[in-house]
Amino acid sequence: MIEKLLIANRGEIALRILRACREMGIKSVAVHSTADANAMHVRLADESVCIGPPAARDSYLSTTAILSAASITGADAIHPGYGFLSENADFAQMVEEHGIAFVGPSPDHIRLMGDKIAAKQAAKDSGIPVVPGSDGEIMDADDAKAWAEKIGFPVIIKASAGGGGRGMKVAKNASELTSAFEMAGQEAEAAFGNGAVYMERYLDRPRHIEVQVMADSEGNVVHLGERDCSLQRRHQKILEESPSPALNGSERDEIGTVVAEAVKKLGYRSAGTVEFLYENGEFFFIEMNTRLQVEHPVTEAVTGIDLVREMIRVADGRPLSFKQEDIKLSGHAIECRINAEDPFTFVPSPGKVNEYHAPGGLGVRVDSGLYSGYKVPSHYDSMIAKLIVHGNTRAECLMRLRRSLTEFVIDGIKTTVPLHQELILNEDFINGAYDIHWLEEYLEKKTRD
Ligand code: ADP
User: Residue 422 to residues 368, 386, 427, 444: CA-CA distances in angstroms?
Assistant: First the structure.
């Protein structure tokens, strides 16, 4: 039985995990850097341990500091959240070797999906449709040329160790190919210490649609509908919704079933997300994330299921608490990521929050560690809050979102609230008519005007 869980993360996700623990009667241990001594997750946890200086590599990424904190406090489980060590297979393995439950999939599955070339092959072998592309790694410029001719321009070169939109370069024609290949490799080497790249057809106007799955150690796998994450800037998600305005019921059931069957074949456990690009009625696998996602609350809103609680139960060796037929998608949910950034130039804006007031009311959820007087440190990701709104229909959800965004007060720093206020009034967005390029084109047009 898990009795005490260490949260190897910070910010809103640390709070999110802490809340699940408290509801389950599990004691929580927060870890924090010196920059986060006054953070909300530290204030609310049952115990806390300072694990190092502000730089993440010396604190939130330090496996030894985190394992020592677990051992000092007697924690019997670790939840890694997202980012930081969440997709580090070696860390998951070390945790297990210390006799501590890792709240996530097995190290082998993390390793497999962390290598995007191998992941794509595994997906293909399990019956999931993939983006047409190279058979594995591109070795040199000649290899790149041969594959590009076979696939057809435009193509995208992607890092096998990729994540966060880094190490990706598009080549529209043969003259752009060599430099795209070299730049992607260099960027990948610098960001991930692994320069291996592969090639895919660059889809013209796709949507990003991902399927949430939950699996236990007994081979039960359930899919929980999809999220549409097409509103992106620099390949990073800004707003997510469930269900996708682009899918009909039979497409939803079909892709959910394909994914659940594949995940079962893989012997996967815990929460996972299979990401696709969707264009002209076709799905193309791009990657699988072996962790809790930032946007998981929209799925929670439409299914009524607490995904973090379920992850903890599975890590404790218990079976899923629901079956596929229990999953009923109800209404519509949208999440806005609120970042401490200028809303239109996206320049980071850390600093002191003088006044904080979060919206509330029916169907409104705010996941955030902010409070009046809190100082947003400059050392970490700029996301400071998530606003998740649920309605019986998409129209009701939008109406509620408009109302909630006008109530939100985060005074003292710049945030992306004004961007969201603007986006949800846009006709294309209201009609659900957007793809992965829409937001960047919208922002370009705005700067031109
Ligand atoms: P990362 O792991 O870095 O997030 P992904 O493979 O998940 O990388 O891709 C992130 C985003 O990049 C996608 O949501 C999409 O916007 C864009 N992208 C990736 N592959 C392609 C492709 N083959 N064609 C067009 N866009 C792509």
Answer: 22, 17, 10, 15
Alpha carbon distance 58, 67 (integer Å): 13
**Encoding tokens for residue 313?**
């139960």
* Dihedral, 337, 342, 348, 352 alpha carbons, nearest 10: -90
Of 108, 85, 78, 63, nearest in space to 316 by CA:
78
Report whether residue 188 contacts ligand 1, using a CB cutoff of 6 Å.
no
Cβ(164) to ligand 1 under 6 A?
yes
Distance in Å, CA 247 to ligand 1 centroid: 19
Q: Are strands 77-79 and 101-102 parallel, antiparallel or unpaired?
A: parallel
The closest of 436, 74, 37, 4 to 229, measured between CA atoms, is: 436
Q: Are 105 and 269 in contact (CB under 8 A)?
A: yes
For residue 256 the two structure tokens come to 């959910």
Give 298's pLDDT tier (boundaries 50, 70, 90): very high
Residue 137 carries which DSSP code? -
Q: What pLDDT was estimated at residue 449?
A: 85
**200 alpha carbon to ligand 1 midpoint, in Å?**
10
Number of Cβ within a 10 Å radius of residue 108 = 14
pLDDT digits (tens, 9 = 90+) for 41-59: 999 999 999 999 999 999 9
* Residue 403 is a catalytic residue: no
Closest residue by CA, ligand 1 atom 14: 208
Distance CA 375, CA 369 (A): 11
Q: What angle (nearest 5°) sits at the alpha carbon of residue 144, between those of residues 140 and 146?
A: 120
Q: Which residue has the tokens 């080549």?
A: 171
Place of tokens 């796709």: 206
Any idea what DSSP says for residue 217? T
The SS3 call for residue 15 is: helix
Percentage of the chain exceeding pLDDT 90 = 97
How many angstroms is it from 167 CA to the middle of ligand 1?
10
